[in-house]
Amino acid sequence: MPFDEAMTEIAAAAKAWRRQLHQYPELLFDLPKTSALVAGKLREFGCDEVVTGIAGTGVIGVIKGRLGAGRTLGFRADMDALPMSEETNLPHASRVANMMHACGHDGHTAMLLAAARYLTATRDFAGAVAVIFQPAEEGGGGARVMIEEGLVERFGIDEVYGMHNQPGLAVGSFAIRPGPMLAAGDRFVVTLNGRGGHAAYPHTTRDPLLAGAHLVGALQTIASRYTNPFDPVVVSVSYFSAGNPAALNVIPASIQIGGTIRTVDPQTRKSVEGRFRDIVNASATLFETQAEIDWRAGYPVTVNDPDKTRVAIAAARSVAGEAGVDDDWPRAMGSEDFSYMLEKRPGAMIWLGNGDSAALHNPGYDFNDDAIIHGMRYWAALVAERLKPGA
Ligand SMILES: [Zn+2]
Ligand SMILES: [Zn+2]
Q: Where in the chain is the domain with CATH 3.30.70.360?
């Protein structure tokens, strides 16, 4: 069958899979229906190997080319939905209360399945492709768990590629940038312990509330005085708990503040964490209180390897043409757990146009089925680009 005809036929089937996934969203690592559908399709297509149970409900399909030995590429799709109520009123809207595919992972899963079907039918490449279907992108760090369970070593993955839909970007278009693309999102809770007492005799106390008030201001100097203004950093204190409005003559013995820090450069992330700790400890010392820092590391910075970004751009251009690929898409302060795979192996993540849809995580959002064919063609183009015989 000619290439275009095969693609159109598979994309039509993938649209039905996508809508089925959309109707039955599942959360985090708990994806029994979704992973069963994925594993069933991969077996039906004739993948050389289908492995389930990685990171709980993760599924890997291995497809070997018929043109000899070569690299192994890892293509990743996320499968999980969000705990929110859908308000689209579409015929294929979620049938599960308070769960919704509002980030388009149903589309990502369907597109990678479509690519697997095409690649198993053709196998016109050297080396192998591992199609990676991961759970728990939305907060559970499913990619990190897969990496910890030996994903890369077990399947001999040399390079990793990811794709996420982007509302507002035209259908059939792609966007990417080399280097940092999405932020790291770390969180913190600081407890300051002092000595409580009568508010009329503050000299007998060691007031943690006053220390905390200074600390909130001092933390704002990280972004305003410590880091380069051309290197984006967000420090937000979003939580402050102290004292009791029913006991206004009491200075509390301890207080808590918390918040989030966003950075887009791995080195800056490290140095900002160090500066944060120094400021917290120095502020505590200044007021003769003690600090306990609960640092909650979030997803790392998503960093596209420059060389693999060129590969991704070439593949995207072969699908969308020169004008259909923006290779200088702005960084954003959101985060993405594909970053763990990119820490382990070089690769690139690309945005796929979802057209004029509602925003991601909005109750009116729906993945655009017209994007499916472009996404699957991108996966096929990466294989053509990167798994040529003798390369
Ligand atoms: Zn999301
Ligand atoms: Zn997402």
A: 184-296
C-alpha torsion angle, residues 167, 168, 171, 177 (rounded to 10): -90
Tens digits of residue pLDDT in 305-324: 999 999 999 999 999 999 99
Could you please report the per-residue DSSP string of 343-381? HHS-EEEEEEE--SPPPTT-TT----GGGHHHHHHHHHH
How far apart are the CA of 334 and the centre of ligand 1, in A?
A: 9
Q: Which residues contact 50 (CB under 8 A, 6 or more apart)?
A: 39, 42, 43, 59, 60, 61, 62
Domain 3-182+301-386 indexed as CATH 3.40.50.11540:
no
pLDDT in tens, 35-93: 999 999 999 999 999 999 999 999 999 999 999 999 999 999 999 999 999 999 999 99
Q: How far is the CA of 165 from the centre of ligand 2 (A)?
A: 8
- Tell me: the pLDDT tens digits for 137-170? 998 999 999 999 999 999 999 999 999 999 999 9
Separation of CA 376 and ligand 1 centre (Å): 20
- Looking at all shown ligands, the one closest to residue 83's CA atom is 1
The C-alpha atoms of residue 352 and residue 347 are separated, in whole angstroms, by 16
- Please give the Cα distance from 217 to 283 (Å, whole number): 10
pLDDT tier at 6, thresholds 50, 70, 90: confident
Report residue 41 as tokens.
């399709």
Tell me, which fold does domain 184-296 have in CATH?
Alpha-Beta Plaits (3.30.70)
> Which ligand places an atom closest to the C-alpha of 165?
2
Q: What angle do CA 50, 52, 54 make, to 5 degrees?
A: 125
Task: Give distance in angstroms: CA of 139 to centre of ligand 1.
Answer: 9
pLDDT grade, residue 4 (50/70/90)?
confident
